[in-house]
Amino acid sequence: MDSNGDGIGDLNGITSKIGYLKELGVDVVWLSPIYRSPNDDNGYDISGYREIMGDFGTMEDFDRMLDALHAQGIKLVMDLVVNHTSDEHDWFKEACQSKNNPYRDYYIWSRPGEDGGPPNNWEAAFSGSAWEYHQPTGEYYLHMFSKKQPDLNWENPKVRAEVYDLMRFWLDKGVDGFRMDVITLISKPFTPDGRLPSAAIVRDGFLQPGFSMVANGPRLFEFLREMNREVLSRYAGLITVGEAPIATTQQGNELTDIETGVLDMIFHFEHMEADYAKGIDGGKWVPASLDLIEFKDIITRWQVELHGRGWNSLYLCNHDQPRPVSRFGDEGLYRVESAKMLATFLHGLQGTPYIYQGEEIGMTNMPFSSIEQCRDIESINMYRVATTVQGKPPEQVLAAIRAKGRDNARTPMQWSAAPHAGFTTGVPWIEANPNSKEVNVDAALADPNSIFHFYRQLIALRKSNRILVDGEYSLLLREHREIYAYMRTLGADRWLIVCNFGAGSPEFSLPNSEHFTSARLVIANYPLSPTHEARSFTLRPYEARIYQLL
Ligand code: TEU
Ligand code: CA
Q: pTM for this structure?
């Protein structure tokens, strides 16, 4: 929400909407980076860790927002982005001065490779080599994301001490925890002679995906244990969630184990990749439909394997992902039904649900018709490389951005039917979705059957039913291609969750091995007649039901 008409959402705007979050039932707000930043990657490139980005307000605005959240019993989790800084951070500016500058070793530098080119074949997340040549000192520096996001050298104890210090700065202000950006990438796999080896060749050309080389590196646990000892353990009741690309369930358990873990929970990406085309020519930008069986298998593995040991975070969307109703549901005819179905699926699982702004009113992907409408460096760089170097047709590349681009989740929050979705009285930094006339908070609050009120009910259910928190998960009907059904069990209590992931009308039938004498309907996204059946029934498009079986 923009409070001053400059077209950019800000801290005072958030403060003005705390009542809305409270009504939804939100307990914790995770805020994307609000620190000083040249904004090459929407604030994930930080040039001042103890300052607020001017566009977003002042430190006084921040303090007021934090107090107002706390006054409503809502916690605040900040984004901690310490795998890299901005190239405009003072540490990096110093590091560029000379090879023997005291800050040189805050970053990762390397002589050119044998052929005078980059030291290895890693590709950056935002296209091109992960190494940028620094002419004045004749060395390359590593950047796993944009070249304006140089990676910090966690091998250097001074870097770690700086990070712990800035964490204490925010914790001493009273923030309640951190969402740690790509935290599993901080330990790089240096060879004994200090080099970083090339990645295995999985596709044509010199550059190869580099993430798998830096994820879950050799000293990751050591660093996170140190962070716990030095910072986290000194504050009571913190919430920590680590972003963990390429994490397996085993790593998930190690990181979040209730006894021996270092974080409360992680964001893994496995289910976000279930609709990637497979193989070396596949990936995020190649459209593929969701294989529901594969999706179930991924979710089930995380539910079953972490139960009683680690802890899951549950999400279908964030600022890096397209809108779930467009991606896994139906943004047209069944927008409301499918958004409620996806919400039911998510809130029935074990773990901590994360709702991304606008998901609770069923906001959809943006119909981008030109790259000029996009703001995200990932999409802009990919578009340039795909349409020039790779010679792909612009319309085809744009279609991929419409389906998967991160800007889908970054268009203005749709507060009302007013111009620019009621987000700003000025010109928004990115265009609002044209459907804001119908899809907006005002309309959702006024309609008792809205997606918003359905989310509110689901959140309330979780707060009054231990089974949703602690109950064991078991998958039903694994082979079914349209229905995702599962059971939660806690002692003698059993809840059945049935979700139709498609626009068809499949038959649900509870396996004969499951016995019950009566069924109580907990929640559903369609009206049901008083005499309806719980053992077997025909599902309507995107129908979802939760029953308590007695
Ligand atoms: O994202 C890291 C990450 O691995 C992805 O979600 C990333 O956006 C995607 O791989 C790009 O293809 C985190 C932040 O959530 C993201 O917004 C930042 O751009 C990124 O780190 C760099 O800080
Ligand atoms: Ca503003």
A: 0.97
